[in-house]
Amino acid sequence: QLQLVESGGGLVQPGGSLRLSCSASGSTLDIYTIGWFRQAPGKEREGVSCIDSSGGSTDYADSMKGRFTISKDNDKNSAYLQMNSLKPDDTAIYYCAAREGSLTNAADRYDFWGQGTQVTVSS
Predict the structure, then answer these.
(1) Are 84 and 68 in contact (CB under 8 A)?
(2) Which single residue of 59, 72, 88, 110 has CA 20 to 30 Å from 52?
(3) Could you give the CA distance from residue 96 to residue 122 in angstroms, rounded to a whole number?
(4) pLDDT digits (tens, 9 = 90+) for 7-62
(5) Which one-letter DSSP state was computed for residue 27?
């Protein structure tokens, strides 16, 4: 059974950067598409970005394009989300998830989820 653990969240000032990590165990990530999602208080979970099993194809939600970069290191069995130019609206719990299938930012298509890591953007 694949297990995912996120790390790297924290408090950052507007305009700052964070790098989130998603570490996998129980299986190898080279067969999984990885998605990053976030959920702010009182809001629905939304897709942030996803990367295919090989790491060769990615997709981003429009509001994250140019600011966030997703990557994957199958040798380290990990995925990452580099977040730059952070805004207060980026404050949320960030989750990584995995599925065996093509790229999608639809949360209900993912089978395995981490517990989330809190990102707070505030001065």
Answers:
(1) yes
(2) 88
(3) 23
(4) 999 999 999 999 999 999 999 999 999 999 999 999 999 999 999 999 899 999 99
(5) S
* Number of CB atoms found within 10 A of residue 53's CB: 21
For residue range 104-117, list pLDDT tens digits in order. Answer: 999 999 999 999 99
Q: Report the b/e string of 80-99 with b at 16+ CB within 10 A.
A: bbebeebeeebbbbbbbbbb
79 Cβ neighbours under 8 A, 6+ residues apart: 21, 22, 24, 29, 34, 36, 51, 70, 71, 72, 73, 96
Q: Give the largest CA-CA distance in the chain.
A: 40
86-99: pLDDT as tens digits: 999 999 999 999 99
Cα–Cα distance measured from residue 11 to residue 60, given in angstroms and rounded to the nearest whole number: 23
